[in-house]
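Students often ask what a holo structure prediction actually looks like on paper. The answer is less mysterious than it sounds. You provide the chain, you provide the ligand, and the output is a string of discrete structure tokens encoding the 3D arrangement of the protein together with D-glutamic acid.
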Amino acid sequence: MTTAILVFDSGLGGLTVFREVAKARPDASYVYVADDAFFPYGSHGEDELVARVGALTGELLAAHRPDLVVIACNTASTLVLPHLRTRFSVPFVGTVPAIKPACAISRTKRVAVLGTEATVSREYTRALIRDFANGSDVVLVGSARLARFAEDELNGTPIADELIARELAPCFVDADGRRTDTVVLACTHYPLLLDRLERLAPWPVTFVDPAPAIARRVVGLIGPAASAKPPPPAHIVFTSGRPSSAALAAALTRFGIAD
Ligand code: DGL
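The corresponding structure tokens follow.
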């Protein structure tokens, strides 16, 4: 039987995770859910987000009966995963800031974590720094705008370089003879802008995208591809029910999703 995987985000950012998971398990069938009616998650209070994601997950599990759920959103995962695991028996794979691997690879021991304002203020994120900084100085950079910029770009609305550069700039610290050399992309929307981030960086750094590690975790839980038979094309659900623009439809096709 085909394994069914549900990938969930507040919007289109989780496509960067979906892409890697689908590469690792091309035989699975996928439903991608964008909770765009509630986007951006970073602007909601914690109680509100726990209630929203819990209720929506219940509905999605009943409608799609997946074998595994990927919460492809740091803003949700750093808060709601324990609630979901208590409430539902399906396995959940979350997406949390890749602070441990980033601090392990940093040579200058200066690391930045770029996420939504909500993610960088979470106790979960601060605990990761306490536990895994490994002697690195870690700067937390919260952006209220970058996730929206990534959505706009994918929807065919170009965003000026200066606007992206302004959100990125605080990640770059040059002090005591040591410059930031590693930036954690702690929001799944940001790898959608990776080319721009690399071009606009004041100096070259390693941007850490957790998606390949998430794909490995999925395979660790449900095993490697079980069949050579190609599954039906992945299907996308927008909680707003919005019809997609031509630009978005083209972008979704590039990600292997039938709108
Ligand atoms: N993609 C989401 C994340 O990884 C955040 C975007 C939002 O604020 O909704 O954090």
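Residues 72 and 87 are 19 Å apart (CA to CA).
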